[in-house]
Amino acid sequence: MSVTGTTRQKMPADILAMKGGAPIVCLTAYTTPIAKLVDSHCDLVLVGDSVGMVLHGLPSTLGVTMEMMILHGQAVARGLSNALMVIDMPFGSYEESPAQAFRNASRLMAETGAGAVKLEGGAHMAETIAFLTARGIPVQAHIGLTPQSVNTLGGYKVQGRGDSRARLVKDAKAVADAGAFSVVLEKVPQGLADEITAMVAIPTVGIGAGAGCDGQVLVVDDMLGLFTDFKPKFVKRFGQLGQEAEAAVADYAAEVRDRSFPAAEHSFADEVKK
Ligand code: KIV
């Protein structure tokens, strides 16, 4: 039984129905054990292309491939029975045309079992979002700071201040009108996120967008304290698992070196006693 009270896995329509109600809880996952850990606590689990930076040590999400997303998506799907699984479309897999987006989104869903895809972009992706949703592919949009566009944005900066405020409002309206079932707002000032949340009929899921969004998402390795290369301002570390893991590894190394591990209880006798 899940903590959210349903017995079947959530679908995009369930997330859509949460608009304006209890906050939608989302985390990323990239592996089966983490998917199992977060499943009953989350409404939506995202197989984010952040996997490239978090698990593969890439400098950005630009090097993430369809094959990486499929492999991690398959692993996550094995650990979920409650939360909706959304999978990121990697850079270069959807921007060229709606047909290219459909080809890759349908492959991601067919080969992983994801219930929806996420893609980055606002008004300029509206045609693609409409094309996909009309053909059976639920889409979560992602606007504000879109990490796949880091090179044109000039860094991982807060979006929607000054002149770009009106553009972000337009983006939110465009993706909602195109049929997205939800929209991620990343690194957007709180007041603007609140305005967008009040304006669109689909749930907003914030990451660095304040508490007024319809839901929140974090990268699971960030909030567990497992990824410590850097910490964005919007991340709260709810655990320090990286430190704990390193201490455990140091204990193991010390015990191997002083031969206190393995002890008798971890070893096998030559003869089994009758
Ligand atoms: O890739 C990812 O993990 C994401 C979330 C941070 C929203 O897009």
Entry summary:
The protein is α/β, with parallel strands linked by helices.
Describe it for me?
The structure is a single chain. By secondary structure, the chain is of the alpha/beta class. The chain has eleven helices and eight strands. The chain has helices at 12-16, 32-39, 51-54, 66-77, 98-112, 126-134, 150-153, 164-178, 190-199, 220-223, 241-257; strands spanning 24-28, 44-47, 84-88, 116-120, 139-144, 182-186, 204-207, 215-218. It has an eight-stranded parallel beta barrel, surrounded by six helices. Helix 9 links the parallel strand 6 (182-186) and strand 7 (204-207). It starts with 11 loop residues before the first helix and ends in a 17-residue tail after the last helix. The mean pLDDT is 96. Bound molecules: 3-methyl-2-oxobutanoic acid. 3-methyl-2-oxobutanoic acid is lined by residues 28, 46, 48-50, 88, 142, 184, 207, 217, 219.
Q: What small molecules does the structure contain?
A: 3-methyl-2-oxobutanoic acid
Order of helices and strands: HEHEHHEHEHEHHEHEEHH
- Order of strands, widest sheet: 1-2-3-4-5-6-7-8
Mean model confidence by pLDDT:
96
Number of domains: 1
The profile of the biggest β sheet is: 8 strands, parallel, barrel
List keywords for this structure.
38% helix, binds 3-methyl-2-oxobutanoic acid, TIM Barrel, elongated, alpha/beta, eight-stranded parallel β-barrel, 8 strands, 14% strand, 274 residues
SSE diagram, text form:
Layout: H1 12-16, E1 24-28, H2 32-39, E2 44-47, H3 51-54, H4 66-77, E3 84-88, H5 98-112, E4 116-120, H6 126-134, E5 139-144, H7 150-153, H8 164-178, E6 182-186, H9 190-199, E7 204-207, E8 215-218, H10 220-223, H11 241-257
Parallel strand pairs: 1-2, 1-8, 2-3, 3-4, 4-5, 5-6, 6-7, 7-8
Helix pairs in contact: 4-5, 5-6, 6-8, 8-9
The structure holds 3-methyl-2-oxobutanoic acid.
